[in-house]
Each structure stands twice: as structure tokens, then as C-alpha cells.
Amino acid sequence: VSSAPNARRVVHRVLTGFDSGRVQRIGQGLETSGLVGRDLAFARELAFGVVRRRRLLDFALEGWMPRGLPRDPNILCALRMGSYQLAFMDTPPHAAVDEAVRLLRPDKRRVVNAVLRRLAESVVPERPVEGSSVALPDGRFLRLETALPSDTIDQRALIHSLPRFLVRRWTERLGPEAAERICVASVAVPPLHLRRTARADDTWIERLQASGVECERVDGPDLARVRGGSSPFDTSAFRDGWFVAQDPTAVAAGRALGARPGERVIDFCAAPGTKTTLLADAVGPDGEVWAFDPHEARRRSIQDNTERLGQSWVRIVDSSTELPSDVDRVLVDAPCSNTGVLGRRIEVRERIDPEAIATMAKKQTEILSQAARHVRRGGTLVYSTCSLEREENEEVVATLPDEFAVEDEVTSLPVAGEHDGGYFARLVRTA
User: Fold this and answer.
1) How far is Cα 8 from Cα 404, in angstroms, rounded to an integer?
2) Does domain 247-429 have CATH number 2.60.40.1120?
3) Which conformational region is residue 404 in: left (phi greater than 0), alpha (psi within -120 to 50 degrees), or beta?
4) pLDDT tens for each residue of 348-365
């Protein structure tokens, strides 16, 4: 890539800013950097990958640094970027090392050059007979200078750069095999899925393919998985509102509401609006969708989505608007810990702890209680999250009064390359 060094400098600046607290969202830092096209895609892959794999990268680097990792954040970030490219990208080793070195002032380059050259020699095609090693996604192996922990949970947490408490609770609740699949998904690049809207006809995938988008149908005629090629968001099909980006797990939660033509529904935590557009398609122009979100910036994303799809029957409202108290259906896609989508929400693994989950569950309980008041007798309430944690899912639903009866409850574990993790419960108000 011709300007990849520039992309690397952007990544270096954004990641050091994230570590210092100056940058809250890595994706936002990249999007506003001026990078476009392949350079932006390269920067995303590198920056997101470094954060997803940080614990393992640091462990591997420490094996070559007996005095410990450098305290200088610029040097440490350059080491992480170089090591990620060596182990997890198809960057030629000499380029990964040289470009990492160039990120630094001449007086800081020597240690980075020496350590990364040793690390490059540790990425091998076959599993070493002796010592510790980690299997890499492309079939190669990373030979480690320091032995991996003997405890299975500690080892799994290190290899997948996850907090130990998450791996432990998944293992205890779901078993070691399911826990391993969740861990693998948490460090995988998440797939991009597109959902057909009511504006599109049956040729929507062929239209995308004609525009250079490599995609294929999955899970029926209304979903496609993008494999590569041109960006679907640069196509006329996108501008014409023929699809939205939405993971199959999120689609299932939205469809669980069962909205029908002409009904009145509330999307209680509506931003960014992808589920709102699904509900609006379901009720049609004779129905009504109230899309509620208290944050102005997030409401703009709902407006962008619904305007592109021409869904004029969606009412985007904030806390100053009194929502109707007797609608047919209410969807509560609650804010959560995001443990089912750690591959997407890369910052989460750096910040999550049991206390944060407990705090989130309390907030979710309050939100669900408020939303439930707007469901008419005989109406439907769906509560969904991107979390895998019982405190945020089943235990929140259990706080609803007895007049809400659970009809269905589904937890989807994430599968690398296929779909996100998440939860939804569908309830009917009986009194």
C-alpha cells in the first residue's frame, strides 16, 4: 500500500492517545484522521488488532525484554504494532520491522529494531517441539520465550487477551468448549452482514455484486455476508436504501418483536437505528414507529438511517416527548457490557470488570421497567442485549411484574466469522 507508512503513523497516534485517555473511541479517531479507502482499512485492521491481542503481544514481547516492557508509550506502541503485523497480518517481515522503527526518533529505534527482528524469527510454519507456542489464525505458530500459564483458564485468558473473570464465568456456566469458541470469536475480525430493506427487490445481491462487492446469501433471501471487494457503502444500492448493515443476531432480536403492518411500536433504545428501520419496514407507512434515544448525537444516526430509507412514519424523539402508553409492541435493545461482541467493541476488554456488569444490570432494570409501561394489554415486549451475562439478561427480565409472561428466550453465542453473540426475551403483557 503506497501510503501505508502514513496509515501507521495515524494508528500510532490514535493508540498512544487511547492509552493515555485522550482518545475514547479508536474507531472514531481513525475515521476523523483523513485516511480513506485501503489506507483506512489497513489502519482499522492494525489498530483494532493490536487492542484485541494486546495481552498476548505484551507477553510475547516481554520474553525478549528481561527488564520488562518499556515505559515510554511511543516505544511500546511501536513494538505492539510491529509484533501484530508480524504475527497476524500478511505484512512482509522487513516492512513490519522497518516501518515500526521509523515511527520513532532515531535515539529510540535500537531496542524496537532488535526486539522485532527476534520476534520475526519466532513466527514459524510448524509447531515447535520444545517450549511454549501459540497457534496463529493462518496456520503458523508464534514461539514464546516464556512458558504459558499451566492453568487452563489463565492460559486461555492470555492467548485471547481477555480478563480472567470472563473466561472463568463462561467456562463454569457453559463448559470449556463453548468458552473456547467465545474466546476465539472475541479476537476474530467480525463479519459484515447486510440486511435487505423493503425498498429492494430480489436482485439486490446481484446489484451489489455488479458493483464489485463480493457477497453471498446467508440465512434466507434477506441477509448477505460480505467477503471482500468494493465497499458496499460506496454503491448506488446503499444510496437508494436497499440495505442496512446488521448482524444476524441483531436481526433475530428485531424480528422477534413480530411487528405487523399498521401497528404502533416503540424502539426504546433506538440508536443507531438499524433495528428501527427493521421495525419501520414491518409496520409500513400505515403504522407508526417511535424511536427514542436521549442523546442528540445518537439521534442523528437514527435520522440518517431512516431518511435514506424514506421511512417518514418514524418519529425520532427524546426525553422531552411523552411516549404513548398503549402501543402494540416495544423493543428494548438495552445498553450493555457487550461481551457478545468483543470483536467489534474492542475497547471493552480493557475496561470491563464484575462491578461494571453489576452497574449495567441495574441501569438495564430501570430502562426495562420504564419501557414496559408503554405496552398495551395483549401487547409484546422484547428485551435484547449484546451481552452473554445472566445478570444483564435473564436476571433483568425476571424483575418484570407477573403480568409479563415470557414466550421465548434465546441466547446466541458468537461464532467467529459467522455472527455476533447476544440475547433476547419476548414477553406478552397478560393484564
Assistant:
1) 53
2) no
3) beta
4) 998 899 999 999 999 999
Q: Cβ distance 144 to 131 under 8 Å? A: yes
CA distance 244 to 359: 32
Range(s) within the chain of domains with CATH label 1.10.940.10: 4-153
Residue the block writes with cell 433475530:
252
CATH T-level topology, domain 4-153: N-utilizing Substance Protein B Homolog; Chain A (1.10.940)
- In degrees, rounded to 5, the angle at the alpha carbon of residue 38 between the alpha carbons of residues 32 and 43 is 55
Residue by residue, DSSP assigns 6-55 as: HHHHHHHHHHHHHHHTS-S-HHHHHHTTT--HHHHHHHHHHHHHHHHTHH
Average pLDDT for 54-71: 94
pLDDT value for 1:
44
Arithmetic mean of pLDDT, 339-349? 94
pTM: 0.93
Q: How far apart are CA 157 and CA 166, in angstroms?
A: 8
340 and 412 Cβ atoms separated by less than 8 Å: yes
| Bridge pairing between strands 192-196 and 243-245 | antiparallel
Kindly tell me if the per-residue pLDDT of 118 is higher than 50: yes
69: burial class by Cβ within 10 Å (0-12, 13-18, 19+)? middle
Domain 192-243 = CATH 3.30.70.1170: yes
Residue 5: pLDDT band with limits 50, 70, 90: low
- Nearest to 121, CA basis, from 64, 178, 163: 64
Q: What is the mean pLDDT of residues 266-277?
A: 97
**Quick one: pLDDT band at residue 2, thresholds 50, 70, 90?**
very low
Every domain range in the chain assigned CATH 3.40.50.150: 247-429
Report residue 266: phi and psi, to 5°. -120, 130
Tell me where in the chain the CATH 3.30.70.1170 domain(s) lie.
192-243
Mean pLDDT of the chain: 95
- Phi and psi at residue 378, in whole multiples of 5°? 85, -5
